Amino acid sequence: MVGMSREIVIAGDIFFEVTQDIINTVHRSFLTCTIFIYKPQWQKNERRASVSPLTNDMEPSDNGSATYIFENFAYNALITDLETLKKTPVK
């Protein structure tokens, strides 16, 4: 891959409105060179863990969802609410 890479991991309970809103916001964005991973709360998934071990320790925040952003394989931000996610510049 040439250029920047980005990984966005959303950890949370799909039944919480905030988690659904964050997933929908990310899906509506045009983000080139981005890998999107959803990690359901409390669910173990050996396949996901083997493909993306960085998700193993990611847990939702107290509000039910957390968005982890990595750029060029380096941790960049942890966002726990939709308004902050909308304001976060993602190149």
Give a short synopsis of this structure.
By secondary structure, the protein is α+β, with helices and mostly antiparallel strands. The chain is 26% helix and 30% strand.
**Structural class, judged by helices and strands?**
alpha+beta
Mean pLDDT over the residues: 79
H-E order: EHEHEEH
Measure the end-to-end span.
Answer: 16 Å
- How many domain units? 1
As a percent range, the share of strand residues is: 25-35%
Tally the beta strands.
Answer: 4
Shape descriptor: globular
Kindly list the characteristics that best describe this protein.
91 residues; globular; alpha+beta; four-stranded mixed sheet
Please explain how this structure is put together.
It is a single chain. With 91 residues, the chain is an alpha+beta fold. It has one domain (6-87). The protein is built from 3 helices and 4 strands; from the N terminus they run βαβαββα. It has helices spanning 17-28, 46-51, 82-87, and strands at 6-12, 34-40, 65-71, 74-79. Strands 2-1-3-4 form a 4-stranded mixed sheet. The longest helix is centred in the N-terminal third of the chain and has 12 residues, at 17-28. It is globular. The two termini are 16 Å apart. The model has no long low-confidence stretch (mean pLDDT 79).
